Fold this protein.
Amino acid sequence: MRTNLAAQQPQSSVMLGAIRVPACQMAADPEYGLVANKAVAIGGGPLYMNARQRRYLDALRGPQGQTLTIVGGVGSAPLPGDPEHAIIDMYHVSYEVDGKPVEKTIYMDAYHYDAPKAPTGFTCGPPLASVAGIPPADPVKWTPAIAALAIEQGSKANVALLDPIKLDPSSSRGYYFDRYGLIALQARAAANSGTRLDPTKPPKELEAIGTAVIAYPASCGERTIPATNVELTGSQGAIQREASGGVVQGDALAEAFPGVAIPAGSIAIRFRNVQPTQAKITYTAGCDGSPAEITLALRSEPPRLLELVPGVIPAGVVEAEPVVYIQVLIDREGHIVRPQYLGGPRSLYSAAVDALAKWRVQPIRMNGSGVVTPNVLQVPFRPRP
């Protein structure tokens, strides 16, 4: 009995981003989650969907609080006519009633997201919005979006947007280039040569670009000491070089980093696209007895929402849950760009994009420089007066 009561708390609520939702929100639509075209919009895309779907199912319970068992494998099929080309996953679940198994099929959509609910005939244990909250940005969507933004902004040759990230803000040790920076360099070079790239059709090879470090030679009095190697470390350990990540030096530097002034004796190395936390540079020798290696922290400041402007519901539109979820890029100056619909009422999407244009955001900063980052934003709406 205690299990049953704990599983059903319709009056309690939890935070989901900027809004409060019931801890165990029951779907008003009797077909929610039980038919393919009304699948549970769990979000996460191909990279995160399995874990998110399992957490949702682990939190779901039968009508009397019974634990669910997943029966057999997972089926998948495209959703006909969906603008985002969603693939719907089907989970066959079972729970017992009077000692007999009851089987149901739950349909889940990893390409869209909305506040998760319990389908008709089910309830939940842990709050659904806590176990399947707002998903991270989907790399399948943001990878080409970053390439398109870098081409668009890089082609304008705005130097401020192309400034690389300093390895050491207090001295000239070299630079770190993220994917955006490397693509923007190529776009600027193409524009300068009269072969401007099209941001609506980014070349596929640009999407595979990772990151890079240029290490300057160290100054030691009147001498300069060349660098011989660079290592990057992220939150999960050492970051691997790209497959073609040998040392770039000499005349090859100008071709690899067009338009960048690079001192003689510098080297560059390309790495996988993983956000680093520190860089270690090895030189041919130390300066006046100091070590031949130096480790530099790449400090990141998280983004900050400075001003949130709610959306305005258009005249004649009535929605029971007026919240829209949009995947965006936040550029190096804090502008919200490249919006992509993720979930919520489609009737409010245009109004949500209009509201986002008025938001003020401080972007992620690395060593003081803005960094282009993907994000999923939740746009609430204020009621009409």
Remarks:
- Residues 139-298 form one domain.
- The chain is about 20% helix and 35% strand.
